[in-house]
Amino acid sequence: MNVPRRFLVVAAVVALATMPVAQWSHAARPKPRPSLSAEERDAHIATLRQQYAQERQQWPAPDVDEDIQWVELGPIPKIPHPKENPGTKEKIALGKMLFFEPRLSGSGQIACASCHEPDMYWSDGRAVSFGHNRTPLTRNAPSALHAGLRSSLFWDGRVSSLEQQAHDVLMNVDEMRSSEEIIANNLSKLPEYGERFEAVFGDSKPTIERVTQAIAAFERTLKGGRSRFDYFLNGKTKALTDEELAGLHLFRTTARCINCHHGPLMTDDKFHNIGLSNYGRKFEDLGRYLITNDPADVGSFRTPSLRNITATAPYMHNGMFTLDELLTLYNAGMRNLRPRKDQVDDPLFPTTTSILKPLHLNEQDFVDLKAFLHALSEPPRRILPPKLPAFGD
Ligand code: HEC
Ligand code: HEC
User: Fold this and answer.
1) pLDDT tens-digit series, residues 58-95
2) CATH of the domain at 256
């Protein structure tokens, strides 16, 4: 994106603040619910401590719409390796090297790790990533952590395996701009790879299929689970502060987040239009519709995982939001654009999902909800990049 992010954010906030209420289906600032007195708050926290000290099955019932099949929040499961691509130790080590290897790209300059930096929680900290020749892409890079547990990948869910995902980004002219020849030529010049491919695959040929298999096997080892929320889930009931605990309860009840952000990764792996398509405007992104051509999918994006969420700002498919902005929007029930005159009969005009409603959160609720989101982030872990073979080794 060639407009500075700060300008965009200011512009977005100004646009929201100045947007006539008629453009919204709901009032932009719903009346906050009454706040609790200090005594009421103490009693509320004491009750939550008791309720959430029980097994997860006994936790208070969530505020979930009737037709939604939700799964309770929980510890992150093991990431399985599929039968077609077993994760042997040697393959995972090779995959790690290839994940950091810029010589897989057409320019010789971009590795997977360029946009999925271990130091940045396997994302890149940017609104949108830079691709080939430092050209900005249109979407924000999701973390590669836990990607092996998702049933579909990318914001629009266009692929369903890590192998296919790696293949797509290697071949994408805007991203790694590679080809089978480039990969074969570059890796063949590095004898260490020949030896490693032979040990893993039986001969030394660095085909793109093998490259993507090794990278995918490595990605399936990218698993977190060291956040304070994880310790809480494992029975350390004191791991969450009062605010974080109140935030967990809000997340599951009054704030209704669990309608879509549920299960161990806090995602239903489904697609929803939460009102961010910019339909018919600058930065328009039709999301899932681009894959399915189903008008019901215009502006739908896959629900992101919220694991390590506070470490991977900025947010949403376009990377245009801070956490505060996003919570303000959710509290308003998100926006539901009214069609302009010329859009009234447009069959593609998107409707924001009815799951979102004004939440009437008060100031303390915002503090609690944010505190809980922070408790989902684990302390940074130092990952040393592997030593890559030098030419002529
Ligand atoms: C130029 C930056 C860039 C490079 C290089 C890059 N990615 Fe990505 N990655 C992205 C962006 C941006 C997305 C989201 C794109 C979208 O959804 O349309 C993404 C999505 C993904 C996802 C999907 C995650 C999810 O939750 O859906 C995985 C996994 C992934 N990349 C792994 C890789 C691997 C493996 C490589 C190297 C072969 C790689 N990426 C190279 C920017 C990059
Ligand atoms: C209707 C389903 C739904 C509900 C309910 C919902 N979300 Fe989301 N959430 C999504 C989708 C879909 C996206 C991605 C939208 C996009 O990028 O256009 C998202 C994005 C996010 C993101 C940004 C993640 C990232 O990596 O960029 C955060 C944070 C978030 N939601 C938190 C919440 C919180 C907190 C609540 C409750 C107040 C909530 N969500 C309620 C579906 C939902």
Assistant:
1) 999 999 999 999 999 999 999 999 999 999 999 999 99
2) 1.10.760.10
